[in-house]
Amino acid sequence: MLSLGLPPYAVREPEKMTGIRVSHTVQEGGAFDVVCGELLRGGFALTWTHESEAAPHLTEEELEEEKQQEKRKTSKARSKTPFFCEKCGGKAWAKDTARLVCGQCWMPMHTEADVTRSRQNAGQDQMPTRKSA
Ligand SMILES: [Zn+2]
Questions:
Q1: Are 1 and 24 in contact (CB under 8 A)?
Q2: Rounded to two decimals, what is the model's pTM?
Q3: How far is the CA of 75 from the centre of ligand 1 (A)?
Q4: Amino acid 39: pLDDT
Q5: DSSP letter string over 49-107?
Q6: Cα(79) to centroid of ligand 1, in Å?
Q7: Where is this region: Disordered (predicted)?
Protein backbone atom coordinates (compact mmCIF):
# COMPACT_ATOMS: atom_id res chain seq x y z
CA MET A 1 0.00 0.00 0.00
CA LEU A 2 2.81 2.39 0.89
CA SER A 3 4.75 1.78 -2.32
CA LEU A 4 1.52 2.34 -4.29
CA GLY A 5 1.07 5.72 -2.63
CA LEU A 6 -1.99 4.54 -0.70
CA PRO A 7 -0.95 4.81 2.96
CA PRO A 8 -3.31 2.80 5.18
CA TYR A 9 -4.66 3.93 8.53
CA ALA A 10 -6.72 2.33 11.28
CA VAL A 11 -10.13 4.01 11.44
CA ARG A 12 -10.10 4.03 15.27
CA GLU A 13 -6.47 5.08 15.60
CA PRO A 14 -5.50 7.01 12.46
CA GLU A 15 -1.86 7.27 13.61
CA LYS A 16 -1.61 3.46 13.19
CA MET A 17 -1.57 1.51 9.91
CA THR A 18 -3.21 -1.67 11.23
CA GLY A 19 -6.41 -2.37 13.12
CA ILE A 20 -9.76 -4.11 12.93
CA ARG A 21 -11.11 -1.53 10.49
CA VAL A 22 -8.69 0.16 8.13
CA SER A 23 -8.91 2.55 5.22
CA HIS A 24 -6.34 4.44 3.17
CA THR A 25 -5.60 7.86 1.78
CA VAL A 26 -4.20 8.78 -1.63
CA GLN A 27 -0.69 10.19 -1.21
CA GLU A 28 -0.29 13.31 -3.32
CA GLY A 29 2.40 12.67 -5.95
CA GLY A 30 2.44 8.94 -5.06
CA ALA A 31 2.35 6.15 -7.66
CA PHE A 32 -1.44 5.78 -7.55
CA ASP A 33 -2.01 9.53 -7.74
CA VAL A 34 0.30 9.89 -10.75
CA VAL A 35 -0.97 6.86 -12.70
CA CYS A 36 -4.62 7.55 -11.89
CA GLY A 37 -4.16 11.17 -13.01
CA GLU A 38 -2.73 9.98 -16.36
CA LEU A 39 -5.57 7.49 -16.75
CA LEU A 40 -8.25 10.09 -16.09
CA ARG A 41 -6.58 12.68 -18.38
CA GLY A 42 -6.70 10.00 -21.10
CA GLY A 43 -10.49 10.08 -20.93
CA PHE A 44 -11.02 7.00 -18.79
CA ALA A 45 -14.23 7.11 -16.77
CA LEU A 46 -16.06 4.58 -14.62
CA THR A 47 -19.63 3.96 -15.74
CA TRP A 48 -20.83 2.97 -12.29
CA THR A 49 -20.88 4.67 -8.91
CA HIS A 50 -20.14 3.48 -5.41
CA GLU A 51 -22.54 4.24 -2.56
CA SER A 52 -19.99 5.61 -0.12
CA GLU A 53 -16.25 5.11 0.04
CA ALA A 54 -15.86 7.03 3.26
CA ALA A 55 -15.68 5.12 6.53
CA PRO A 56 -18.82 5.81 8.54
CA HIS A 57 -18.35 8.17 11.43
CA LEU A 58 -19.04 6.25 14.62
CA THR A 59 -19.43 7.47 18.18
CA GLU A 60 -17.21 6.08 20.96
CA GLU A 61 -20.11 3.85 22.13
CA GLU A 62 -20.69 2.51 18.62
CA LEU A 63 -16.99 1.78 18.20
CA GLU A 64 -16.92 -0.06 21.55
CA GLU A 65 -20.04 -2.05 20.65
CA GLU A 66 -18.51 -2.98 17.29
CA LYS A 67 -15.33 -4.10 19.06
CA GLN A 68 -17.35 -6.27 21.48
CA GLN A 69 -19.38 -7.80 18.63
CA GLU A 70 -16.18 -8.68 16.80
CA LYS A 71 -14.83 -10.35 19.97
CA ARG A 72 -18.05 -12.35 20.45
CA LYS A 73 -18.06 -13.46 16.80
CA THR A 74 -14.46 -14.63 17.00
CA SER A 75 -14.87 -16.55 20.26
CA LYS A 76 -18.16 -18.10 19.05
CA ALA A 77 -16.57 -19.27 15.79
CA ARG A 78 -13.61 -20.74 17.66
CA SER A 79 -15.92 -22.69 20.00
CA LYS A 80 -17.94 -24.15 17.11
CA THR A 81 -15.34 -26.39 15.52
CA PRO A 82 -16.82 -29.87 14.84
CA PHE A 83 -14.82 -32.90 16.02
CA PHE A 84 -15.47 -36.46 14.79
CA CYS A 85 -14.78 -39.91 16.19
CA GLU A 86 -13.44 -42.01 13.31
CA LYS A 87 -14.57 -45.26 14.96
CA CYS A 88 -18.23 -44.61 15.90
CA GLY A 89 -18.89 -41.38 13.96
CA GLY A 90 -19.68 -39.47 17.13
CA LYS A 91 -19.62 -35.70 16.88
CA ALA A 92 -18.79 -32.92 19.32
CA TRP A 93 -18.22 -29.18 19.04
CA ALA A 94 -15.48 -27.34 20.85
CA LYS A 95 -12.78 -24.72 20.41
CA ASP A 96 -10.44 -25.58 17.54
CA THR A 97 -7.58 -25.84 20.05
CA ALA A 98 -9.37 -28.49 22.16
CA ARG A 99 -8.20 -32.11 22.28
CA LEU A 100 -11.23 -34.40 22.65
CA VAL A 101 -11.58 -38.13 23.32
CA CYS A 102 -14.76 -40.03 22.38
CA GLY A 103 -16.60 -41.13 25.57
CA GLN A 104 -17.76 -44.39 23.94
CA CYS A 105 -14.63 -45.57 22.12
CA TRP A 106 -11.92 -43.75 24.06
CA MET A 107 -10.45 -42.74 20.69
CA PRO A 108 -9.07 -39.25 20.05
CA MET A 109 -11.56 -37.13 18.11
CA HIS A 110 -10.43 -35.21 15.03
CA THR A 111 -11.44 -32.03 13.23
CA GLU A 112 -11.92 -31.89 9.45
CA ALA A 113 -8.54 -30.14 9.26
CA ASP A 114 -6.83 -32.97 11.21
CA VAL A 115 -8.28 -35.60 8.85
CA THR A 116 -7.22 -33.64 5.74
CA ARG A 117 -3.73 -33.19 7.15
CA SER A 118 -3.29 -36.88 8.00
CA ARG A 119 -4.55 -37.92 4.53
CA GLN A 120 -2.07 -35.56 2.92
CA ASN A 121 0.72 -36.91 5.12
CA ALA A 122 -0.24 -40.45 4.08
CA GLY A 123 -0.24 -39.40 0.40
CA GLN A 124 -3.91 -40.35 -0.04
CA ASP A 125 -5.36 -36.99 -1.03
CA GLN A 126 -7.27 -37.31 -4.29
CA MET A 127 -7.26 -33.67 -5.31
CA PRO A 128 -4.02 -31.81 -5.97
CA THR A 129 -3.71 -29.10 -3.36
CA ARG A 130 -2.44 -25.64 -3.99
CA LYS A 131 0.68 -24.79 -2.05
CA SER A 132 0.22 -21.67 0.00
CA ALA A 133 2.90 -19.07 -0.46
ZN1 LIG B 1 -16.36 -43.07 19.14
A1: yes
A2: 0.36
A3: 27
A4: 86
A5: --S--SPPP--HHHHHHHHHHHHHHHHHHHTTEEEE-TTT--EEEE-TT---B-TTT-P
A6: 20
A7: 52-80, 113-133
